[in-house]
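User: Can you predict the 3D structure for this chain?
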Amino acid sequence: MSATTNQRAALIIIDMQQGMATVEAGERNNRHAEANIQRLLATWRQSQQPVVHVRHLSRSPESPFWPGQSGVLFQPALEPLATEPIVDKNVPDAFTHSGLERWLHARSIHQLVIVGVSTSNSVEATVRSAGNLGFDTYMVSDATFTFAKRDYAGTYRTADEVHAMSLANLDGEYAEVVSTEEALALL
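Assistant: Here is the predicted structure, written as structure tokens:
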């Protein structure tokens, strides 16, 4: 796995906002995800590769992601630079009604490395769209995380189980699931 000659790979960082780092967000997995995202971000910046930050803005005033609340703010260690675009969304998929696809095509970017939260929601929705839109997509398994939840039958699933199922849903169908080390090797 490697980027083809002269191909730029965009790092897409999804919903790394302060609201995702609260206890209220729930039991989560991949406690080292933020550190891995920071490593990827530092390498992308050093390599002068494109970085896109995705921010969720809720449609519900009760949500910590309602505009004007601290939950909407980016986590300080992952704050975008002034030169890095921010894509705002109010649905899980970062491509829906956002202009992200157009922004990538205008820059001839066809390879995406996707990280962030939550694996089973915004990350999975965005990866599915990226694959369906024809992007060469990589999802970084240890630079994403999700939360525990009950399945449709009511059975409690740990965050690791929910994460593993999302990875299984995506790998080989919409994206190639890789580790942080494998993603770094793309550059």
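The chain has a mean pLDDT of 94. The domain at 9-184 is CATH 3.40.50.850 (Rossmann fold).
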